[in-house]
Amino acid sequence: MKIKILTMLSLSLLMLVATVSVNGQSKEITGLRKVRMNAIGTMMDKGHVKGYYAYYMLEKADKKNTHYMLEVMDNNLKTTHSVDFVKPKNTYLLDGEFNGTHFCFAFLNQKLKMAEYEIYDSEGKATGSYQVKDLSAAEMQMYYIMAQSETGNQSLIYSALENGFLINRTEKNKGYKFILEQLDNTGKVNWAANSGIKDKSYEAGDVYSVNGEFAVASITIRPKMLSTKGFTTFINVYNVAKGDLIAKLDLKSNINYLAPSGASFSEKDNEIMIYGEYFGMKGGKPDMKDKKGFFVNIYDNEGNVKSENLSSWQGEIAKKVPTNQKGRMEGGRSIFIHKMVKTSDGNYYVVAEQYKKNVSGLGVASRALGGGGSLAKIDVFNMMIFSFDKDMKLTDVSILEKNKSAFQLPEGYGTVSTEKLGYIVKAYGGFDYTYTTMTNDDSNFNTIYLDYNRGKENKGSRFTVGAIGLSDGKVTESKIKLTTQPFSFTTLPAKPGYITIFEYFKKEKKVSLRLEKLDL
Amino acid sequence: MKSIKQLLKLSLFGLFLLKTQIGISQKNNYKPISGYEVHKDTISRIISSLKTPAYDHRLERKKAITKFEEICQERSNYIKNLNDAGLIMTGDTITNWINEVLFRLVEANPMLQELNYKVYTHRSSICNAYNIGEGVILINLGLLMSIDSEEELAFVLAHEISHDILKHVMESTKEQSALYGDKDYLKSLKKASKLEYGAYTELERILLAVMSNKMLHSRGNEYLADSLGFELYSKADYDFFGAIGLLEVLDSSDYFIYDFDIDLKQYLTTEGFELNDEWFSNEDLDPIWSKMEHLYEIPDSLKTHPGCDERIASVKRIAKIKEEVKVKKTGSYIEYEGIIKFELIQSLIEDSRPVEAMYYAVKLLELEPENTYLHCVMANSILEIHDALKNMEFRWYVPFPDESFPLGYNKILSFFHNMNSKKLQSLFLAYVSQHITDSDSDDFVTYVQFRKRYFKNEITLDQIIEYEDEIKNTYFKQKVEVQKENYSKNKLDNLKNDSKTKK
User: Fold this and answer.
1) What is the ipTM of this complex?
2) What is the C-alpha to C-alpha distance for residues A51 and A74, in angstroms, rounded to an integer?
3) Domain map of chain B by residue range?
């Protein structure tokens, strides 16, 4: 017996920042003046989405400080915690993670030149913090770019489950050194690991995978800060509890040159899978023009090789590509391996995307007008799924067609070797692949990518979200066409069978976050 | 103009006839009530009276007057929209029964006899009743499902009539509008929004203070409506237990009227489609960390209604009752209970809430396993979710399972979350083949059979048009129309693809 109340809230609601949860599967935040696409992020653990966070400014608290709101949502987009706090103005959220009991958020405090890691328990109560002070100009710049980045695909914090969190950073010390630190839930640093190189070097670390026991990181060493040649890359496996270096994985071979692009764990079988493209050798040096195929090396927990597998374009792969799809393989395209997963039935799946370096018309035109920009671009083509049985025998190759998209290479990267191009495209968010998640029982996976349709016949957005998964053991695909027309949008990882779409509507001063079910 | 007494007397004979018809048909196949539109003249009068109510607001400021007029316009539009959507029932079995009860109240209370109340059934499953103003009262099907006796309905009506007598709706509108002309309030909002520092905190403080004051007033009005309502109710010789019973119903009423578990697999098992146990699992659907309930609780200061315990205590004080009250079901309610249940399901279907419709249909299938209407509801729910998946509208139809939902409902949600459109299509075809035959010329059966033929590619455009002509129910007619458009679009796409291939 409630009289319909037409509230007076509409009078002043627009002046406020307000979150409106339409239902359990969507959320809108209105009244926003400016939105950075990375203000909303995903908390993931071993390929499973645990939840999301949204960070936005409420008001200026005083001359020096700003009042911020940090909203934590579960994997159904339901707000579970809201923490509002006052921090010095120009404080940016860099990353967030959940380790099963605690949340860790990284902030850049621009004024104090400091990175701050704050830890909260599942009730939203602060349990500890850790600060990295006196950041160098280069570090500040790196964090600032990360804070402003709209792709938000770089991570600083990793869940180490009962061992707290791992954080990955770079420190100015005889060049720049990679550091991996373990924080417990009170913010105490229990161990820190580095490359072990004492001479001057410029290092960049990429943490491939972390679980409660191990961390796999690739470390790339450059002789000079901006050098684009002469890289060396090695892969270290650390014990998460103590920080001991368990294994330094050797990928050297006299016949082939292996260029890793990632690593995954199989928790059930205690396996570490390292994968990437492989090339021929000429005169004892890698011949990057001789693209042979891709490799998958599987190691046990102690770094011992369980199996080494090469799949060559001309051999195994060519035999498995269906005749009607051969055309999609031609034209000297490379592949970038985004992810490798092992399903509960023991089969392996490699998720890859085709790309090729081409001359950029835009870059040429820009140069002709006296501007900058690289003369090269990367054309990104189809998605590929390579299916292997439990003995790592290639059983199927699926080529999932999508529209070609182009990525303009930043200036100075035009001459980078093919093997590194994939990393650069990945770092700048140039691939259409977005993420892969696993079902809780690891019986299936979902790979999500974006497809841009240039046709004029489409109403609304020209973006289509593609989803790949398994149905009755076969690789299958579903496409979802976006109907809204946001100013910008991105997809975030979601629980199995779903995608999270984050859209920014500039005119309406609002962002919308929603879970869409995949028809897989 | 005929008085309410005369109108009610006229409708009683028709009501008797209708009741008999439904009593028979329900056993095999329920036919939803149809043809209940409010008469054009009546709805025009209501719309016009809500737009320009006979109420002297005495507002002085222009902004406040404009706001008052806006709210009245919104209210008038609300009724118009409900009527256009076919959500207001009148002249039907249920609404006639409600008016019968109203008649008893009016007869017993001379003060009501000069007033012209217009009470309708609102096709909504939410447990609620509304006083829109100007004597227009809507009783939701969801509330009618929740109550247990005629007495409880009488107290609902007495309470809503009291709001009208006490001018609560218009007074509340006036207060709300006055705020828009309140210079001090507007000035404080403007000042707060321009604050360089702490603007959000200050705005939040001002708004919460205003809201809290308004809600305090609203809670006071509820006590007054209970008090006057109880007086009107008692004069009609209704036993006090109905008033207490209603407040108890409201206290325990949840979004779901029934809370039960179901063996969903048993109801969906067919010969033509094998169901996998994994599809009934909700393993991947549970939230990762526990819900923080306090975030969803509305603070007492912002509640529009006082707690039901307090209201029960207040009514008991008025009725001078100290002992425990036992609620009884009375005869007249039992007669209508069955129809209300079926109509509620139909309203859920028409309100595009197929999962809830399926949940209640399963409950009724326990009692009437051969009921064709209920099997059509099951098939239609599968179909609706299939269409939602195809149209990227799944999230509007199927929420995630939640601890606060009944177990049986969560099972249906989990099942649909584990499905894809291909599997749902196969399930639909198998279900229809097993449970629904063509023998009945009912609109619902015709629609379901049409979709079956459509899926099987056994249909031409001319045949779709024939179905469109045959089906009289507006809801199902619109559904056929959508498929007609799809059919034409698919044909066009196929032609385009063929021509591309030839090139």
Assistant:
1) 0.77
2) 4
3) 346-502
